[in-house]
Amino acid sequence: MLLKEEIRRLERNGERLNHFENSEYLKNVILKFLSPERVSGERVQLVPILATMLRLSPDETELLNRVASQDG
């Protein structure tokens, strides 16, 4: 019984770490998207990443694409 509890605790800790890493990655992608472009088309390249991580609808993704394309 003690072993099962320890396994569950370790799994929860792993899930928390994974969530933290994903949150940190998402934060960095959003900041990169909002920052002035250093490379042409950089924002457009970030749209699929944001769409996946934020589970955007096709309409929301298209809106983000339009915003990203305005920089070019």
Automatic annotation (TrEMBL):
Pfam families: GRIP. Residues 16-67 form the GRIP domain. It comes from Angiostrongylus cantonensis (Rat lungworm). This is GRIP domain-containing protein. It comes from the Eukaryota. Gene3D superfamilies: GRIP domain. InterPro entries: GRIP_dom (IPR000237). PROSITE patterns: GRIP.
